[in-house]
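Intended use. Records like the one below are meant for learning the mapping from a protein sequence to its folded structure. Do not use them to infer anything beyond what is encoded.
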Amino acid sequence: MPASLKGRDLTSIRGWTRDALEQVLDLADDLKVSRAEGKPTPLLPGRSIGLIFQKPSTRTRVSFEVGVAELGATPLHLSGADLQLGRGETIRDTAYVLSRYLHAIMIRTFAQADVDELAEHASIPVVNGLTDEEHPCQALADLMTIRERFGRLDGLRVAYVGDGNNVCVSLMHACARFGARFVAATPGDYQPPADAVEEARAEAGKAGGSVDIDAEAADAASGSQVLYTDVWTSMGQEAERTARLHAFHGYAIAPRLVELAAPDAVVLHCLPAHVGEEIAEDVLYGPRSAVWDQAENRLHAQKALLALIVP
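Structure written out for the chain above:
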């Protein structure tokens, strides 16, 4: 029997094993089928889940609120302005208090250190809904989507093209644990952090996969089963927009790049998309796009995660 995940945090993909991630993915598949068949799945009756948003969101907010409700629990939306954090209460004190009211916390914020501190002091599970450094919930949905399309993750070539940001880092670590061949094509100044790359490379080696960084988008895309991108200018980087558009010239997922990929390749994007920048319109809405399945799978993967970690 697999080890119980009850009480665990998901602050990062790092620290989660392949077996633990597979438990989430397997249950997510089941929950997706049940929802399509109209079968209720109230796996967390009577629980209350706090959802803290210090960054705006579409997919994270809607998928978590709907998912919590479908599990039979109560979602409690908390904006930054709703909490005393905005008036100087410490993260430690907030963790102590919320642990007395809630059964789990999801937080979408800026600094990874804040999520780690919240998890350190909370006596209930803490889920990272996004930080500037990592986006583990997105990575769960990504793995689910790739596995749906190909029936496996081992040995697949996954090419990430663009900014080596939080999405890239979490995807890289997730792919490494499943023995995929991950390659990120990024301009030199925008590569994922070197320590994250080395850690993922070591994990990939154990699983029979690989992690590579390439300067050329065409080289990364060649023969890949998955082409993945994200916006070039994320929240909080608006002042860098002009410089980023210049730096990422040639890194868009356009039809010419898709043609270099494997014949059965799919295209992923975590959204929101800036059509005409990091992805072409006819790719985003074309036959190779699995983007909308990927967005839907945020719901199923997060429901599975909560069902498994909330006591």
